[in-house]
Amino acid sequence: MSLNSLWEYANPKKFIQTTDRVLPWVAWSAALTLVVGLVWGFFFTPDDYRQGSTVKIIYLHVPAALMAINAWMMMLVTSLVWIVRRHHVSALAARAAAPVGMIMTVIALLTGAIWGQPMWGTWWAWDPRLTSFLILFLFYLGYIALWEAIENDDTAADLTSILCLVGSVFALLSRYAVNFWNQGLHQGASLSLDKEENVADVFWYPLLVAMAGFVLLFIALVLMRTRTEIRARRMRALLARERMGA
Amino acid sequence: MMPDLGKYADAVLSSYAVSLVLLALIVWLSLRRSKRIKSDLEEVERKVKSNG
Questions:
Q1: How distant is the Cα of A62 from the closest Cα of chain B, in angstroms?
Q2: pLDDT tens, position by position, A96-105
Q3: Would residue A1 count as lying in a domain?
Q4: Which of B26, B31, B51 to mutate: most A Cβ within 10 Å?
Q5: Would the pLDDT of B7 be above 80?
Q6: Which of A7-11, A13-17, A37-41, A225-229 has the lowest mean pLDDT?
Q7: Which of A101, A177, A185 is nearest to A138 (CA)?
Q8: Which residue stretches, if any, does this entry annotate as coiled coil (chain A) (predicted)?
Q9: Contact B48/A64, CB-based, under 8 Å?
Q10: How many domains does chain A contain in total?
């Protein structure tokens, strides 16, 4: 697929037509993969010799944290496309992704707190990764509020795109905070190309399936929500035209 | 069938409960808004068409 053919999907009609066919497949794949990953992780994996049964929280915490950061990265890319090419679908896709990313951030924060209590003896610490994740959550809230607060769609897309660029610093920090500061309670990446740092295979395979499930769920939700935003924008445009004509 | 979660049962079960509720919530809200906007748009389009 050439880059030019990719821009065809910036046409709202083409986007709706294509996702009509794609969305059911992505949604059912997400449901299946998520169920397999979570059932495998919860029921068919052993306890960890240090963390006991709390290791089962990894199948929610790590995929949610992964998607919390990558949702913002997706919003960054689509916001840049809006700034450079002025394609409405890309701005609406960023808008559609924000609540999903925020939910992923909340899941990561809550499961992290619940996991941290028995392991670290505290629900919360002002650790670099935890703190940058909390700031990322606040950026999600601010981003969603900004879209809601501005009536003009293009102005809202411009301002939220700038906010997205600024928030990307914290999205990256939440990923690499442990490496930058090398301190705090939180461990490094659970999945790494360095075999020594990786979790054991018995936990890793169901974790990969759960992560795939979260990725597919995110894609399905963003496609569905982008279609909704496209329709809502068309409705606002029609109503505005009606008012002008009246 | 239920695995023995030992002394960490509360932590593990509450993590799963909170996460699944939040995932179900975002799916439900997204579906609900999608249906509502779709039917609202159809109504507006019908109205615009009838007004010429």
A1: 12
A2: 999 999 999 9
A3: no
A4: B26
A5: yes
A6: A7-11
A7: A101
A8: none
A9: no
A10: 1
Looking at this predicted complex, what is its ipTM?
Answer: 0.94
- Check residue A193 and give its pLDDT: 46
Give the global pTM. Answer: 0.92
- Separation of alpha carbons A10 and A226, rounded Å: 12
> Is the residue at A135 inside a domain?
yes
Question: What residues make up the domain containing A77?
Answer: 58-241
Q: pLDDT tens-digit profile of A178-209? A: 666 656 666 655 555 455 556 788 899 999 99
Q: What integer pLDDT is reported at residue A26 of this predicted model?
A: 98
Nearest to A42 by CA among B2, B10, B51, B29: B2
Q: Is residue A113 part of a domain?
A: yes
Q: Which residues of B touch A57 (CB under 8 A)?
A: 11-12, 15
Residue A3 within any structural domain of the chain: no
Q: Which residues of B touch A (CB under 8 A)?
A: 1, 3-9, 11-12, 14-16, 18-19, 22-23, 25-27, 29-31, 33-34, 37-38, 40-41, 44-45, 47-48, 51
- The closest of A51, A118, A53 to B5, measured between CA atoms, is A53
Closest CA of chain B from A15, distance in Å: 15
Contact: A107, B30; criterion CB under 8 Å: no
* Pairwise CB contact (< 8 Å): A47 & B6: yes
